[in-house]
Specification:
CATH class of the largest domain: Alpha Beta
CATH topology of the largest domain: Chorismate lyase
Distance between the termini: 60 Å
CATH architecture of the largest domain: 3-Layer(aba) Sandwich
Helix content: 25-40%
Radius of gyration: 21 Å
Structural class: alpha+beta
Oligomer: single chain
Order of helices and strands: HHHEEEHEHEEHHEHEEE
Number of strands: 10
Shape: elongated
CATH superfamily of the largest domain: Chorismate lyase-like
Strand content: 25-35%
Number of helices: 8
Length: 240
């Protein structure tokens, strides 16, 4: 497979994206091919291969093991159904470093569907990309009552978990949530933010949270990479 030598994007960046795609589509699951094999597969020089691999090691996607080769380092993020946790808490439980980047914060008029879910005409909308070890794993859209959003927007939302802010700083006691999980194809813009090919299926989790008094607190519509995020639930069966 030859890279596009006429493209203005440097070859080591093109190769990096090819390796990432093979990891995230499950073609590389443990050890990646050797330098020589990558050179022969993509018709590139050794220096190009080393640049690409070095960047992926720095980003935490790959890890080098002395005398053994280069291995896939990414691990699925496991979230337990039945446990109301923030993404930060879930990522930290897996021994990884959480991160976030605020893409949008604005007051919007809600669609008929969102009005029915939230009971609001307008809401404060936040959109963030979520990371684990600097790898994008999800896109989260949060909808809050405007008064609550006006308080949240004053904080550094690239470095703060919403749940922590609600409970620690704003005195909101989240109590329970209703959640629906399904498979969808993300919009082109979201696929780009997640570093996945357009048309790739992702997990869509919709979550409505209320406080101890039953008042609406938040509606979250999130998209998580299916190759890096999984949900678990414990089930039991009572014998007759």
């Amino acid at each position: 497979m030859s890279l596009d030598y006429m493209n203005s994007i440097p070859l080591h960046i093109q190769l990096k994206k090819e390796i990432e795609e093979k990891i995230f589509t499950g073609q590389y699951t443990k050890k990646i091919p050797s330098e020589r094999e990558l050179m022969e597969e993509f018709y590139v020089s050794r220096s190009t291969v080393r640049q690409s691999v070095s960047q992926l090691v720095q980003e935490g996607v790959l890890e080098k093991r002395r005398g053994k080769g280069t291995f896939v380092a990414v691990r699925p993020i496991n979230d337990w159904l039945g446990n109301l946790s923030s993404t930060n808490e879930t990522v930290e439980r897996m021994g990884m470093e959480p991160g976030a980047k605020l893409i949008r914060s604005e007051i919007i008029t809600l669609s008929a569907q969102l009005k029915e879910i939230t009971g609001l005409d307008k809401a404060y909308h936040f959109k963030r990309v979520r990371y684990a070890n600097r790898i994008p794993i999800g896109i989260e859209r949060h909808y809050y009552p405007v008064e609550l959003g006006n308080r949240l927007v004053k904080y550094d939302l690239d470095n703060e978990a919403f749940y922590n802010l609600l409970e620690r700083e704003l005195g909101v006691k989240t109590f329970e949530a209703e959640q629906i999980i399904k498979s969808v194809n993300p919009a082109k813009e979201d696929a780009k933010l997640l570093h996945i090919p357009e048309g790739t299926s992702v997990l869509n989790a919709e979550r409505k949270i209320t406080d101890v008094d039953g008042h609406f607190v938040e509606f979250e519509n999130a998209y998580y990479r299916a190759d890096m995020y999984s949900f678990k639930i414990k089930l039991s069966r009572k014998s007759n």
